[in-house]
Design brief:
Chain lengths: 236, 236
């Protein structure tokens, strides 16, 4: 706990790891859920063989991993673009609306109960350097941290790969069984076991109650599969 | 632009809208992409009828919307839990490590070029009120804003619904054609038109170059569909 105070790099590393874990959690939980549910849904259709279920599952996994990887990438990119456009605006504002910006800066500190004298002093000292003042307003007025350019790419890769790994699991049952109904049975057993394990581990990592987390993750997978099964039976 | 200065509520509303737009963008772009690609993949398999493609597509849409909605919900929940645990730690720190925390607070302002005298004055005034000091450190040391509890639920709903709307589009082509090959042809036409329109509109909303955005969104959809088609043909 005390290292938190001595080593700021340590703290940032902690955040970086959380982001990676979060990416893997997002990709893997969707990967375990969607192809599992799709396969379960197709199992309810009488004219469908294990071959078609596996083919559909693989098609879904590749499409889903591309779409989710892209989702992560675009989310990161949007964040970076948002930051850059706000940064430009803040530079413009300290030039064009200098007095308004000084007042905004004083107001920030007024909110935390600082005296008028301190407010004035802080703004005077900050305003000496444009770059530092803008940096300050970005973080403190807008609550924006400079995003890490590489995160977008890392996030895309992590989510995409985690989706593929998670998605293969429920399909394996259809590879080693002779009919959709027995495939479905084993797919449920394997996937529910994985969802429980994954949900448990995920909760441990994010510091939530582990058993509750395991149950929650599993229930969502089962609901998705049951919904897909119901919809497929209804429309086939 | 100037209203930005006069109305802080206005600014927050702007962010709120961005979050909603981002949710819809995430859900819709995945919805247009994944069921489109899955249907395209299944079209490559000779034993598959339009009925099976539609059934698989609907099963995927319902499962995907549940999984994505959940993803949004969990992301929001994780953010809230992370904030709460950091808040608790910060209260503990100003009690147990008061001197260290005061130094951290001074260091924040040292980074922006404030004089030692100002640093001392700010910390003295901030430390008079525990709640305000902790609020300050949360926002300024850790860069964390108090998350909106309702956002997690809203995000789940927006992403899930957008996924369903986006996913239905490519499937309609298989409903009004007689064979997978003609279904695929019309699905490509309809979906590519939607991806172009959606990508264009999305870029307008987020302030990016619109034509480039339209192309990018479309290319991803096409890549996912081509990959799914290739994989399905390979394994069928």
């Amino acid at each position: 706990m005390q290292t938190h105070h001595h080593d700021h790099v340590h703290t940032e590393k902690h955040f970086q790891q959380s982001a990676t874990v979060r990416d893997i959690v997002i990709g893997m939980s969707d990967g375990l859920t969607v192809p599992f549910a799709l396969a379960a849904g197709l199992s309810s259709v009488s004219s469908v063989s294990n071959g078609i279920i596996i083919t559909a599952g693989l098609a879904e996994i590749i499409a889903g991993s591309i779409a989710m990887g892209l989702g992560g990438y675009l989310a990161g990119k949007t964040e970076i673009e948002h930051y850059d456009s706000e940064l430009k605006r803040e530079y413009m504002e300290i030039k064009e609306f200098n007095e308004v910006e000084r007042k905004e800066c004083r107001d920030i500190f007024a909110e935390y109960g600082l005296s008028h004298e301190s407010q004035e002093k802080i703004v005077d000292e900050l305003a000496k350097n444009d770059d530092k003042w803008v940096d300050f307003m970005m973080k403190f007025e807008l609550g924006l941290e400079k995003p890490d350019i590489n995160r977008a790419r890392q996030s895309a890769r992590n989510i995409g790969l985690a989706y593929i790994v998670g998605g293969i699991v429920p399909l394996t049952a259809y590879m080693f069984t002779g009919s959709p109904s027995s495939g479905l049975l084993f797919s449920c057993i394997i996937t529910i076991a994985c969802l429980l394990t994954f949900g448990y581990y995920k909760s441990k990592v994010t510091g939530q109650p582990a058993l509750q987390g395991a149950m929650r993750t599993t229930v969502i997978g089962v609901i998705a599969a049951a919904a897909a099964f119901g919809i497929a039976r209804l429309f086939s």
